[in-house]
Amino acid sequence: MVSVFSGEVTRTWRFPDSEGKGHEVVLYHHPLTGARAAMVDHKELHKSLGTSSIFHAAETRLPFSTGSCQGEIIILRDSMTTFAYRCLVDDKDVPEATAIASRPAYDRSARESRPGPQLQVFSVRVVEYCTAQCHVDNKAITWYAVDASARLSNGSTATTRVHRRFRDFVEFDETLRASLTGYATKSSLPKPPQRRPAFLKDHSDEAFLRDRLRELDTYVKKLVEVPHAWLSTGAPAFVGLSDAVREYSVLFPEKTLGFTLGRAPPKSDGSLPDFPAFVSEVHEDLPLRPGDLLSKVSGRTTSNLAFQQCVAALKYSSRPAMLHLLAPLAGRDLPPPPPDEEKNPFM
After folding, report:
1. CB-based contact 220:294 (threshold 8 Å)
2. What local confidence, expressed as pLDDT, does residue 242 receive?
3. Distance in angstroms between the alpha carbons of the first and the last residue of the chain
4. Has residue 276 got a pLDDT over 60?
5. What confidence tier does 111 reach under pLDDT thresholds 50, 70, 90?
6. β-strands 35-40, 50-51 pairing
7. Other C-beta atoms within 10 Å of 75: how many?
8. Percent of the chain residues topping a pLDDT of 90
9. 317 near 133, Cβ under 8 Å?
């Protein structure tokens, strides 16, 4: 149960469908205000936005369907000051992800309740900082490089380096605490990164940046030691790792980028791709590989851009430029080579 004074709560349920495909349902709820929203497989659940407070009905049901499964999220008001949460899939209770992670290692049901590969993050360090220009407003952005390593269920190790802004660390910590509200693990979380107003400290000062780097590095090192924290919603993704995809980032200091951008093809059902552009060819010694998706420019997602807008963002942005990309952890299906008129070399 969760108190109305606990702040925002996040609950996550993961389950396979009849074909073995994994699905994820996430509920966001603020017990005091009653504000709620839900995501199913990373998409907003229709009609989930609303209010479930102590002044509303004792039970709120949010039906959903995904794959071959029919389910519903249930928000229960246990009393005037506490809430509880359930997820039913095909009329069966699904254990909440954090509750599964908190079970003892010898509990067989905990292992059987986790569909798909399970990442075990065992090393995270914040190793350096750099500055890049935003392609939208041309303002300087300070980025902190996060090196992470995780072990997959098949025994292989995945590693990456991804850049995050300070505010990304703050938002990650807030999300993590929300997902652990109601669990004893929350009390073990390290002290979160501290905001310092720019009018009190020059955020571009080298001494300030070095101190902040040490603070962030200490935070993530301690976080690795907290049991189950990295099984919370969004935790592995923050360090650039998920079940099947690795996020990484590259700082480009020169106008010439050294790779060719291609237009991503539609999905098999004819719908638009999640990201409009991918690396078609690499012409210089770069960590990029053909087929990697361009996911962010200056930290801003490309998912809401057209292909030519991605091209313009790269072509006309100031340097240094920070690009984020997505690459599969295992074997990849390369998009077909784009026609010449759909290639945009940056050489």
Report:
1. no
2. 78
3. 57
4. yes
5. very low
6. antiparallel
7. 25
8. 51
9. yes
Question: Which ranges in 4-115 belong to alpha helices (H)?
Answer: 97-101, 108-112
Tell me how far apart the alpha carbons of residues 85 and 76 are, in angstroms, rounded to a whole number: 6
- Is pLDDT above 60 for 346? no
**Half-sphere exposure of residue 257: CA atoms within 13 angstroms, side-chain side:** 25
Count the neighbouring beta carbons within 10 Å of the beta carbon of residue 301: 12
Task: Give dist(CA 59, CA 74) in Å, integer.
Answer: 7
Residue 20: how many other CB atoms lie within 10 Å: 9
Q: From CA 290, how far away is CA 336, in angstroms rounded? A: 11
Cβ density class 98-136: b for 16+ within 10 Å, e for less: bbbbbeeeeeeebeebbbebbbebeebbbeebeebbbbe
Q: Is residue 140 a contact partner of residue 158, using CB atoms and an 8 Å limit? A: no
Residue 158 CA, distance from chain mean position: 16
Stretch among 6-15, 135-144, 277-286, 318-327 having the lowest mean pLDDT: 6-15
Q: Which residues contact 274 (CB under 8 A, 6 or more apart)?
A: 293, 303
